[in-house]
What does this fold into?
Amino acid sequence: MSASPHLDHADDVRLTELQHWLASLAAPQLAVTSLRPASADASFRRYFRVDGADGASYIAMDAPPPQEDVRPFIHVAGVLAETGVSVPGILAQDVERGFLLLTDLGSTTYLQLLNPDNAHKLYMDAIEALVLMQARSQPDVLPEYDRALLLRELKLFPEWYVGRHLGVTMTEKQTTALDKIFDLLLANNLAQPQVYVHRDYHSRNLMVLPKGNPGILDFQDAVYGPITYDLVSLLRDAYVQWDEEIVLDWTIRYWEHARRAGLPVNPDIDAFYRDFEWMGLQRHLKVLGIFARLYHRDGKDGYLKDMPLVMEYTRKVTHRYKELAPLVRLLDELENKAPQVGYTF
It folds into this structure.
């Protein structure tokens, strides 16, 4: 980001504190007056770019307590760096106040650069990095992506998408049907092999680097959980859509690469793809709830335009498996749509 938009200090106490903290650092020496917004976030965190006396640029993170805690970010950055993937280095920290100074992985996200000509190369890089990260996974390093957490995420769908966004109060029968679908999904998700899971491994959090591609951001919520989770975040991305044939091709390439790396993926590709799709459905339902919450609770309407694609993913998966037919019917009822003829595997 070359421009330096004016920063309004008038009522921004955190910004003033951050500038004083940056000015107090012995190294690297920073031109604090160059501080400028670097990226927006769906949380309370803010990121600023700042120039150093050495000609390099750096990233300053403002993560205000008590809403945010930088300690998980610091911990996961160390864990992922040890796996060999590209993550920002932490150069200075003030844990109590929620300030970090990071190395700068640039300003070009996958989302900004992706096109049909470069997509294959970029996605192969992202898959290679994902396998590298997963292959170094160990239990008891990151929090468990357990049933309670997976279910808490799923419940965002009825609360925020159905209840607040659609304005529908589900009947007892509908609630029971949805709970049965949740049980089916969770049984599948929890039976999958467990590895390090970034949880938001997609085009907005992957940076295009000159080497060591991709740079990986926004990993502070990483957990130890189902092996297909990050792959489906990457390939069934809420912000960019690819043809089903291409997604299937990339999924198979990941599966082959993961097997060569000794990862415990399902040896049957059809079973693996089913795991991928069912994990994706858990994520899509969660994301619909999160996008609705960002709008209705936090006043962020930028995610509304991404909801139709996530619902399209949701419907396509539910149509493909006969066990998920009750969810098709429920979605039709909630959205007042006539049932469509689907096909099952």
